[in-house]
Amino acid sequence: MESLFGLQTTTSPYKFLYPFETLCARFSSDRTGSCRACTQTDSKQLGSKSTLILSKTQYDPLTITMKTPTKTRTHNDYTVGWVCALPKEQTAAKAMLDQIHPTLSKPPNDQNSYTLGSINKHNIVIACLPKGKYGNNSAATVATRMVSTFPFIKVGLMVGIGGGIPPKVRLGDVVISTPTDQYPGVVQWDIGKAEKGTNFKRTGALNNPPSALLTALTILETNHEMHGSKTREYMDDLGKKWPKLVPEYTNSDSLKDPLFIQDNSPHALSSWVAISSIFWKMVLSLLGYLLGWSTLAPMHSGAEQATKITAKVKIDGAQKKPGDIRVHYGLIASGNQVIKDAKFRDSLNASLDGNVLCVEMEAAGLMNDFPCIVIRGICDYADSEKNKDWQKYAAAVAAACAKELLEHLQPSDVDGERPVKDVLSDG
User: Fold this and answer.
1) 3-state secondary structure 222-290
2) Strand 155-164 with 356-360, pairing
3) Most buried of 223, 284, 309, 317 (most Cβ within 10 A)?
4) Distance of alpha carbon 109 from alpha carbon 94, whole angstroms
5) Cβ count within 10 A of residue 362
6) Domain named Nucleoside phosphorylase: which ranges (predicted)?
7) Per mean pLDDT, which range of 219-228, 307-316, 332-341 is the poorest?
């Protein structure tokens, strides 16, 4: 028997860890010792020398504990940096977090806005570029401030939207930057020397991502081949947690892909007939010009249309259904110029040996200041039909894929990496 605040209590097989009156607010105040929650106690009227006997009817042994206070997180607890360029990309990123953490203070010279949270066992810092300030230089500034304020960030992600290179890549697909041949996963196409026309020769190289991320990427690619992507599962989870986002961020049924032919009508014009029609229009236009009947229409517009329809024919062979999400691994071309021309896009791809899967505007600025993996949801084809219809859905798909990658990133591997701030200080 042990004395506990004047009460005689049995010691075995039961254990009290805290004073009786602080254990459970559910004990009645009539000093009978009965618990309103379980009513499984046999007790006598309590007094200064009474005995409290707890029965073994429900618990054996009975251990009552107090909740351990949650540890207060500091800047040093965050090891993953996640950078996005657009508010819609930040919305998708925040919606993918398992938990959202309270904000922390930041230095006066840090103008970034941060969202803190966690996925799996990783504490994550999300930062978005200032509204209206896009491109490589702005991305580099945001990343530099982030690793200064959160000095133990060791791995980075650049997650958002980009333009796909057909016919390999389709709207709603995901492209993950992966080292390819002599390229480190991301190439800054507008750093180099011009040779002929729009062709150029790339000069210099960008940093590779941390080894921990590349290891996780290998596991992710293997799992995708064997079991398929879990991206759709994470998209569905987002819809359950944030139902207001469903119409634009998780549902692609109402979105149209200009390179996807899904016309079951018996009167539908075949792709080859369409190509033939464009060809004869170009011939007649040239003939009319030579005879002085009309001015010559821009030839590249017809060529772009023919390229699109040819891509349609190739894409049809893949039989991808609307809503399917495919993940591609390969080269991303990054530059400070928006690409909205199919001819230039294809020339750029050809100059990089046909390895380009995606074009975008921020990643190259990060690679030397914030070595990371770039994940892009495809929202357009970087041609004259570029629009914003697919952007929110593509942002959510990219964020879901980033979450899946983090599920395969081992905390022990992250611990083994040096902080990005230290790596950069070494020059």
Assistant:
1) HHHHHHCCCHHHHHHHHHHHCHHHHHHHHCCCCCCCCCCCCCCCCCCCCHHHHHHHHHHHHHHHHHHHH
2) antiparallel
3) 309
4) 24
5) 29
6) 81-179
7) 307-316
Helix (H) or strand (E) holding 196: none
Residue 201, beta-bridge partner list: 193
**Alpha-helical segments (H) within 291-416:** 299-318, 342-351, 363-367, 391-407, 411-415
Query: How many CA within 13 A on the CB side of residue 334?
Result: 29
Nearest Cα to 16, choosing from 54, 47, 46? 54
**Average pLDDT of 262-285?**
53
Distance CA 163, CA 378 (A): 5
Using alpha carbons, select from 268, 253, 381 the residue that is nearest to residue 322.
253
DSSP designation for 333: E
Query: For residue 192, how far is the Cα from the chain centroid?
Result: 30
Instruction: Report the pLDDT averaged over residues 396-419.
Output: 96
What domains, with CATH codes, occur in the chain?
A: 1-68 (no CATH), 75-258+320-425 (3.40.50.1580)
Structure tokens at 79: 């090891």
DSSP string, 73-84: P-GGG--EEEEE
Q: Which residues lie below 8 Å from residue 366, measured CB to CB, with a gap of 6+? A: 83, 136, 139, 140, 143, 156, 158, 372, 374
240 has pLDDT over 50: yes
120: tokens are 């799996």
Name the pTM for this structure.
0.72
Question: What are φ and ψ of residue 404, in 5° steps?
Answer: -65, -40
> What Cα–Cα distance (Å) separates residue 149 from each residue in 24, 79, 113, 201?
42, 12, 11, 37
Q: What is the reported pLDDT for 56?
A: 40
216 neighbors 227 (Cβ within 8 angstroms): no
Give the Cα separation of 344 and 363 in Å (integer). 20
- DSSP β-ladder status, 41-43 and 51-54: antiparallel
Helix (H, G, I), strand (E, B) or coil at 8: strand
For the chain, count helices (H), then strands (E): 12, 18
